[in-house]
Amino acid sequence: MANGSRQAAWEFFGAELKRRREEAGMTQSALGALVFVSGGYIGQFEQAIRKPQLDVAERIDEVLQTDGFFGRMCRKLIKETRYADYFAHVAELERLATVICDFAPAVVPGLLQTREYARGVYRASNPFAAEEYIEEMVQVRMDRAPVLMDAARPVYWAVLHETVLWIPVGSSATMAQQLDHISAMVRQRKAMVQVLPFAAGAHPAMGKMMTLMEFDDAPPTAYTEAVLSGNLLDDPGVVKRTQTHYDLLRAAALSPEASLALIESAAEDYRQCATTT
User: Fold this and answer.
1) Domain 3-79 CATH (choose: 3.40.50.150, 1.10.287.70, 3.40.630.30, 1.10.260.40)
2) What pLDDT score was predicted for residue 254?
3) Sequence-ordered list of residues with C-beta below 8 angstroms from that of 36, at least 6 positions apart, any chain
4) Considering only 3-12, 43-52, 139-148, 205-214, which range has the smallest mean pLDDT?
5) Helical (H) or strand (E) element with 99
6) Angle at 73 between CA 70 and CA 77, to 5 degrees
7) Residue 213 contacts residue 221 (beta carbons within 8 Å)
């Protein structure tokens, strides 16, 4: 399903949600309270600004007695997205976030990846895939990058473990280009990047990738990812604890200035390696 068609389908979802809610004589706040989200969330669902998670859609079905309509439609739209099921909702939220904070233990975060680096990541995880599939996946990832380029872009903060700088993905030239890109994003003030050095030792997110997102009119969320799975967390207590872990990571990381110097030094090392091989 093309992006325009999928958006039209979500708009139909929202219009139908509004119609069914009003037929039931419920306000947005009243429905939200019964499905454990805010009235503002319901309003955003109805305007197709924000897409509900499947469990919320299923609770809406229960409350409005719609015989599984919203759950089925949500499941179908998630299935037809270009992203993996566990990441589809996160990709939607990135476009709405006012603040995005990433922690990367081993791989450059998707929003900062260059095309060649992304290609190396996908080839490593799909060694028997056709090149057409690899290119399709790379393009899907590249399509997320404009989030950080728009005038209304979110505040973006990334903490990279030093491991990220020294795991070669692709050629030395690819790594030099990737680190140059991160440096450029920092120098253009489109991103704040810190490096958590090896010397920092143990930390609260050992081996755990995490993303925190904040919004103008919705509670913050946290996302964590494992092998072929991901968890979008919106429980306030869990999100607060995740935010505390991220604050500890930032405190243990090098300063932004020292981090940039290390990134640019690593890029130069890769560049020299590329010219001698």
Assistant:
1) 1.10.260.40
2) 98
3) 56, 59
4) 3-12
5) strand 99-104
6) 135
7) yes
Cα separation, 55 vs 73, whole angstroms: 12
Rounded Cα gap, residues 167 and 158, in angstroms: 17
C-alpha dist (Å) from residue 33 to 26, 29, 49, 56, 100: 11, 6, 19, 11, 27
Residue 264 reports pLDDT greater than 90: yes
- The beta strand positions in 138-241, using DSSP E, are 155-161, 192-196, 209-214, 221-226, 229-233
Which CATH fold would you assign to the domain 96-113+145-276?
Endonuclease; Chain A (3.30.870)
Q: Identify whether the C-beta of residue 183 lies closer than 8 Å to the C-beta of residue 260.
A: yes
Q: What is the pLDDT of residues 183-208, one digit of tens each?
A: 999 999 999 999 999 999 999 888 78
User: What predicted TM-score, i.e. pTM, was given to this entire model?
Assistant: 0.74
By 3-state DSSP, what share of the chain in percent is helix, strand and coil, each rounded to 5? 60, 15, 30
What is the three-class DSSP state of 229? strand
| pLDDT tens-digit map of 27-76 | 999 999 999 888 888 998 888 877 788 888 999 999 999 998 998 888 77
Domains in the chain: boundaries: 3-79, 96-113+145-276
Asked if 80 and 23 count as a contact pair (C-beta separation under 8 A), the reply is no
Q: Which helix (H) or strand (E) holds 243?
A: helix 236-252
The residues, any chain, with a CB within 8 Å of residue 194's CB and separated by 6 or more, are 157, 158, 159, 160, 250, 253, 254, 255, 256, 259
